[in-house]
Amino acid sequence: xxxxxLHTGAGGLADYEVLEMLLFAGIPRRDTKPLAKSxxxxxxxxxxxxxxxxxxxxQARVPQGCVRLFATLGPIAQRVAxxxxxxxxxxxxxxxxxxxxxxxxAGCTGMHVLFLDSHNHLIADEDMAMPPAxxxxxxxxxxxxQAVSRLLQRALALHATSLMTLYLARDDEPVDPIMAGDxxxxxxxxxxxxxxxxxxxxHMVVGQGQWRNFSLGEQPR
Length: 221
Description:
Layout: H1 2-8, H2 15-26, H3 33-43, H4 46-51, H5 54-59, H6 64-84, H7 94-104, E1 110-116, E2 122-128, H8 141-157, E3 162-168, H9 175-196, E4 199-207, E5 210-214
Parallel strand pairs: 3-4
Antiparallel strand pairs: 1-2, 1-3, 4-5
């Protein structure tokens, strides 16, 4: 059986064979197959054996070394499962975005795009290089259209159903002029996103201990 595991992995083993290998760690130099089969028959499955309490295992004549081993397997399996499914951030309002900035974007500057799924879970946070023509008080219309198109193409590639844009100002950048200059871009993005089924929650500027935001159709605040 050890040769099978080395060549093909443990995925093809029956429950009693996996249990046989586990028992061998606590019962060296003995044939553990009879006990493994007996435990499967008694408890019904490998999972039931591992989850059985110490008293039940001792009554089934499982050696103390194996009882202690089985007691650790459940917590280990839960920890592995949690690691395989990391908790995804939920950005469902401006307060959660500000908290995200404080924790994950401290010291960052420039434009970020937060791509979200249908439950507002964060899929990706990506930098967006702003063309100089877009950062002018009166942005160049072709530059706005190009930036909007590029951003929405990225949203579709990520299978994002919504997004929000975020500008992190430098220490020497006042937030109000930035918000005024970004309004044309954010408005165009919201209108284009609606045509493609991508909900644009809005745009936020953060800097100098202040923040401003607006959603499509709202005045900055």
